[in-house]
Amino acid sequence: MMKNLIRALRLPFITASVLPFVFGSLINRSHFQVAGFLLGFIAAAATHLGSNLINDYADSKSGADWQDKKFYGLFGGSKLIQENVLSEKFYLNSAIVCAIIASTAVLGLAFLLKSSAVVIYYLIIIILGWSYSTKPLQFSYHKLGEIIIFLLFGPAVVMGGYFIQTGVFPDMKSFVLSLPFGFFTTAILYANEIPDFYNDQKAHKFNWVSILGVDRAYILYLVLMFSGVASVALAFRLGFLKMFSLGGVVILTVPIVKAALIMKKSPADKDQLVKSSQMTIAVQTVASIILIFGTFL
Fold it and tell me: Per DSSP, which regions of 7-83 are E strands?
């Protein structure tokens, strides 16, 4: 059961939310607040996991995840509904439990920080997170999912972590520093959309892959990934990051290019595209760790 739960939660993807949050919390460590950090960490993680669950629920309802029932691990959903292992109701109820856990942590934050604004900010975040998949908005079905992912896994988590520690929002420094996370995580989503593109179309789910088509999807992938690298360079130019961070992220251009070449050569081969998705996740994770470590230099 534990193995299925991990798969249903898509637990390996949790780094996409918690690492940016950790980074945002460490941008200014002069008055690091441990209780606030822990509550924010719980809220970020639970919101992300709940959004994963509701995504599987919504994509099952729409038929998107029924087009190809094979489990690839990185795209196409967890497939546990399609394998008759878990029910749609389980996913919905579990997503609600995650939302309750996150909301409780947020209320604790509001009390700790003596700020009702925290609750308002979180309401916006959870509405966007659930509306990514669910009706009536279903952003991911109308070429808006990438924008939502960029906002939630970039500015929202990084600036949120910074706000908890400093009480400052909005803030230009934390916004600029959030951009690499937004671009790299959006690239993960985009890489995972390429192998699912034709199946998604059958379920009337349209994303950015349709902008250039599957055969040229690698071009927009490179734009997203190199925008992440460029935003690190911008942060360095503005004095927000050290040379260590810039140099470390620049080295990651090698796997970025390798992943793009796989997309170019095998745009319809899902088994090959698993490799490009793995490389993209690795780049996001390693870049996040480099940026976090850079805050201590």
Answer: none
Query: What three-state secondary structure class fits 68?
Result: coil
CB 9 within 8 A of CB 45: no
pLDDT tens-digit series, residues 110-167: 999 999 999 999 999 999 999 999 999 999 999 999 999 999 999 999 999 999 999 9
Domains of the chain: 2-294 (1.10.600)
- Please choose, from the candidates 204, 113, 208, the residue with its C-alpha nearest in 3D space to the C-alpha of residue 167: 113
- Residue 93, C-beta contacts closer than 8 angstroms, at least 6 positions apart: none
The beta strands (E) that lie in the chain are given as none
Residue by residue, DSSP assigns 148-184 as: HHHHIIIIIHHHHHHHHHH---S-HHHHHHHHHHHHH
Alpha helices (H) along 86-137: 88-113, 117-131
Cut 0.90: pTM above it = yes
The burial of 84, by beta-carbon neighbours within 10 Å (0-12 exposed, 13-18 middle, 19 or more buried), is given as exposed
DSSP helix/strand/coil, 202: helix
Contact between residue 203 and residue 210 where contact means Cβ atoms under 8 Å apart: no
**CB of 113 closer than 8 Å to CB of 91:** no
- Kindly report, residue by residue over 239-252, the tens digit of the pLDDT: 999 999 999 999 99
According to DSSP, residue 73 is labeled S
**Which of 20-34, 76-90, 177-191 has the highest mean predicted lDDT (pLDDT)?**
177-191
Please check whether residue 191 is in contact with residue 276, taking contact to mean a CB–CB distance below 8 angstroms: yes
Burial class (CB in 10 A: 0-12, 13-18, 19+), 253: middle
- Encoded amino acid at 169, one letter: F
Instruction: Judge contact between 52 and 83, C-beta under 8 A.
Output: no
Contacts of 84 (CB under 8 A, 6+ apart): none
**3-state class of 240 per DSSP?**
coil
Residues in the chain: 297
